[in-house]
Amino acid sequence: MSLTITKLSHALGAVVSGVDLAQPMSEVVFEKITQAWREHLLLVFRDQQLDFKQYVAFGSRFGELERHLHQASDYLHPEHPEIYSITNREMNGKPSETRDVGREWHTDKSYTVRPLKATLLYCKQIPEAGGDTMFTNLYYAYETLSPALQSMLDELWAVHDFSKRLSNVATYLDPEKIAARRKASPPVHHRVVRIHPETGRKALYVSKAVTTRFQGMTKAESEGLLSHLFEHSVRPELTLRHRWQVNDVGIWDNRCTLHLALKDFEHTSARHMYRMAVLGDTVGHVVQ
Ligand code: SIN
Fold first, then answer.
1. Is 253 one of the annotated active-site residues of the chain?
2. Protein residue whose Cα sits closest to atom 2 of ligand 1
3. Does 108 qualify as catalytic in the annotation?
4. Which of 238, 208, 8 is nearest to 136 (CA)?
5. Tens of pLDDT along the chain (288 residues)?
């Protein structure tokens, strides 16, 4: 069966059919998939029946997988610490701590010096309606700015601070865990315009979830332009709203996209995703 790529929106995203991710994949097929990934930024593979080993094997084709050895184990797969559950199901009789992950536009781990290259979700339960994820194309976000602003942003760095994001979940996370996470994630600097290492294209690399100010400027001085960039980067025509189906495997490129997990459903309706992520390059540095 040959590979078919069907676009999901003008801005980004495509469904790949004609491939069974449970089977060993040739270099030729994988190269076609990576080419499609570079072009569409998010790929979705429908109706995949994978065991965890096969899921890990597929994710590993994209690079070294993130392992969560240090984190609370309730959400980690006992044999595959690369796999993390994003769920609203109760865990050990307690409300899930991952039930509201990603409720602000962000790109994974941009608050570290080594943000994630890619993230995968394997959808196992989805509410009857809702539970969608939105994505935006950060190449287009940059390319649709005026040239004068592009030139100015090309020279700037910005602060990405996990504390900003934590303040949104602080109401239900244990204070000790919050303090430990803050300590483990000091603010970092990243270029505002990131050059993708594989495509050479420029992407606007700021997000409402964690970007707090431009390097060398105060929050007050940065606020107006940052608000404009946050709003501009998620203009509807730059985005895709993905409606998940059970057994979808999705993989997106964090170097040129933002995403947002919508709270468009009731927590009485189960949503369960198995998340994995691929480590990226070291491109930032800790704020001194
Ligand atoms: C995330 O932000 O990584 C979670 C995305 C989702 O659950 O839709």
1. no
2. 102
3. yes
4. 238
5. 689 999 999 999 999 999 999 999 999 999 999 999 999 999 999 999 999 999 999 999 999 999 876 555 688 888 899 999 999 999 888 889 899 999 999 999 999 999 999 999 999 999 999 999 999 999 999 999 999 999 999 999 999 999 998 776 655 667 777 788 778 889 999 999 999 999 999 999 999 999 999 999 999 999 999 999 999 999 999 999 999 999 999 999 999 999 999 999 988 999 999 999 999 999 999 998
Q: Is the CB of 261 under 6 A from ligand 1?
A: yes
In degrees and rounded to multiples of 5, residue 69 shows phi and psi of -55, -30
Report angle CA 6, 7, 10 to the nearest 5 degrees: 165
pTM above 0.85, yes or no: yes
Catalytic residue among 40, 68, 99, 106: 106
Residue 194 phi/psi, 5-degree rounding, is -105, 130
From the CA of 107, how far away is ligand 1's center (Å)?
A: 10
- 261 C-alpha to center of ligand 1: Å? 5
